[in-house]
Structures are given as C-alpha cells and as structure tokens.
Amino acid sequence: DETEFRNFIxxxxxxxxxxxxxxxxxxLRNIHSDDWPKSFEKYMKDVNCPFKVQERQETVDWLxxxxxxxxxxxxxxxxxxxxPDGAKNTDNTAKNAEPLINLDVNNPxxxxxxxxxxxxxxxxxxxxxxxxxxxxxxxxxxxxxxxxIAKASQSKEGLPVALxxxxxxxxxxxxxxxxxxxxxxxxxxxxxxxxxxxxxEAIVAVQAIIADPKTDHRLGKxxx
Length: 224
Known about the structure:
The protein is an all-alpha fold. The chain folds into three domains: 2-80, no CATH class; 104-155, no CATH class; 166-211. 62% of the residues lie in helices and 0% in strands. The chain has ten helices and no strands. It has helices at 2-17, 26-29, 36-46, 56-74, 76-79, 85-97, 108-120, 129-144, 146-153, 175-210. The longest helix is centred in the last third of the chain and has 36 residues, at 175-210. It is elongated, with a radius of gyration of 37 Å.
C-alpha cells in the first residue's frame, strides 16, 4: 500500500533515524504530494542508501537496519545485556524438558534409588553410579519397552530342514549320532550368522561415532 509505505518512511525518519532537522522534513511528511517520490529519492541519497527507490523491499530492510543501529547507539547501556524473548523461552523449555539436568549424583537418595533398580534388574554393581544408571537405561530400552516386549513375545516359526540334504563330512558309525551331529552343526552355523550380524552392527556403531571418511560407510568412501 503506497500510503502505508510513505507513512512508514516518515515514521522512521521522525522517530528513529532523524537525519533531517524537524523543519527540513516537510516535503517528506507531505505524503499526498505528487512530488513525494522525488523527495523520497533525495532522502535516500542523503542517508547514503545503496539501493534505488524502485527496490522497495531492499530499501525498507536497509532503513530498518539503520534505524536499529541508531536506536542501539543512543541506548547502548539499555540493550547490551538484553536477551531475546525467544531465547528465554527456549532456555526454559530446555530446562523443563530435562528434569534430571540438575541432578546431584552424590545425593544418598539418588545412590539408593540406582542401587535398588540395579538389584531389581539384576545388574552388576559398579563404583560409579552413573555407569550403573546407563546400564539400567540400556536394559530398559532393549528389554522393557513396549516395542521390545512385543518383539520378544512374537513366536518364531522355523522352516523344516531336511537333514539328509546336509553332508556331515564324517561318519560316526551310528545313524543316530550322525543325525545329532548334523543338528549341532546347523545350530552352530546359525550362531555364527548371529555373531556376524552383531559384529557388523558393532562396526556400524563405531563408524557412526568416529565418522572417519576413510571407514564411514555412509560417506561412500573406503580406504581413500
């Protein structure tokens, strides 16, 4: 809106920038005059604005920046220690979101609570109560969350295995022992596969921590 824009410029000059003397602001204040664009162009040159009058948004941003700088210069002591309201709210939210942030780990009640939890969950004792608390957290996350309990409750249906198709590689001389040996070998292979999976998970976890471009699989670079 042209009228709002002109009023805005006049307000900035009158209240914040004050580049002109009061008696010299008449042409700029006459917002209904056909010559106002020329007065505004002259004003922009006088305050050394680097933008053209046609660049409205850039001009407004620049004038606001000038007004803020002058306002701060006039009241530096008032504003130097100010904290934005948004930052205060963020700090309060963070504190409320982490009720344990000011926890006293040397408090006897805290130690007693950790020890009681450790005994209940059959976790080995440790001199550092924070270490025990971390162990409790890991156990709860992996075993006692709703997802973990639901996953553990799911029945695993295995596929039938034809033992005669798997070569044992040796003969005990007893058909029953041969069959038992084949079953043990298959179970052993399954355990090795689970172990390899855990090893791979451990490698990925370590890579995520060190984030080394030479070894981090996520960066797509290996050995370079």
